[in-house]
Amino acid sequence: MTTILFILLGVAAAVYLAVWITTHVGSQATAVPDDPAGGTPRPTALQVATGFVTNFFDTLGIGSFAPTTSIFKLTRMVPDELLPGTMNVGHTLPVVTQAFIYIAIIEVEPLTLTLMIAAAVLGAWLGAGIVAGLPRRPIQIGIGIALMLAAVLMAMTQFDLFPLGGEALGLTGGLLVVALIGNFILGALNTIGIGLYGPAMIMIALLGMDPRAAFPIMMGSCAFLMPVGSARFVRKRKFSLRPAVGLTLGGIPAVLLAAFIVKSLPLGTIRWLVVVVVLYTAVMMLHSARKRPVLYALLPTQKNNR
Helix crossing, 2-27 with 214-236: angle to 10°? Predict the structure, then answer.
């Protein structure tokens, strides 16, 4: 099953890259001087550095969209209307790289991994229509509060104040069913900008799995979702080319470095990392509920802060 995942992921990445290259080459004859998707693809040092920093933290589970948005807006690197496309296009290949690496270096029972990725993808496709009709703010507030409580619960386990499993590499029976339903819901919520990473981390830990198992599951889920959505931005040329290339070129080596760090950390440290990531996600979600950013309105089907 793992081999099949690698093949499918490779095909998705190759098709996406081919769409990007052919669309850019084809745009050269028609691009006007201020066409953001035309012109030279050579990024600046700042754009490459942005890709490195944001994808390093993304590989640790913190997410890349929120910090990328902040950097782009502070430096006025990308017009607001092109933010969603630029980030999706630029971060897709680093996320695919994350999935390849984590699936290869972190052991997860193949059936559990495959089914949970499939559940998230199905949730994104089948559940998007239902979830899109739900009010976003109450969902954000509810999940934000739930994540904070869950982070407190995990912190208590670190001090032996509350029992919690945490070394299983796979799930069976009722626990597997719960995990599949949960990842289906997270995949659907992902389509309206409610991130998958933090909730997935806490769900997997609370189900008694090794927290490291969250990384191939959540990165694999997003890696299968992003190429399709990003290809649409490419075809419509609704992105800024140079910053997107910078995110990709800086992001891939950052993924390699951060994945090695996660692999080498002891289990107790990983659990504290999960607590920090979940608290960060909860705060960002509650902040977004308080004042909805422009980015959420512009992202029709893609994740934000994952």
Answer: 20
> Higher confidence at residue 64 or residue 158?
64
Number of domains in the chain: 1
Give domain status of residue 117, yes or no: yes
- Predicted local confidence at residue 299, as pLDDT: 44
Give the count of beta carbons closer than 10 Å to the beta carbon of residue 286: 16
Question: What is the pLDDT, as a whole number, of residue 159?
Answer: 78
The 10 Å CB-count burial string (b at 16+, else e) for 156-187 is ebeeeeeeeebebebbeeebbeebbebbbbbb
d(Cα 291, Cα 274) in Å, to the nearest integer? 26
Give the model confidence (pLDDT) of 32-62 as tens digits. 344 455 556 788 999 999 999 999 988 888 8
CB 259 within 8 A of CB 105: yes
Q: Please indicate, yes or no, if residue 268 is contained in any of the structural domains.
A: yes
CA torsion sign for 62, 68, 73, 75 is positive
Beta bridge partners of 209: 168
In a domain, 149, yes or no: yes
Cα 107–chain centre separation: 20
Q: Is residue 306 part of a domain?
A: no
Residue 183: domain span: 2-298
pLDDT in tens, 134-172: 777 787 787 788 778 777 877 877 776 655 656 788 999
Q: What is the pTM of this model?
A: 0.77
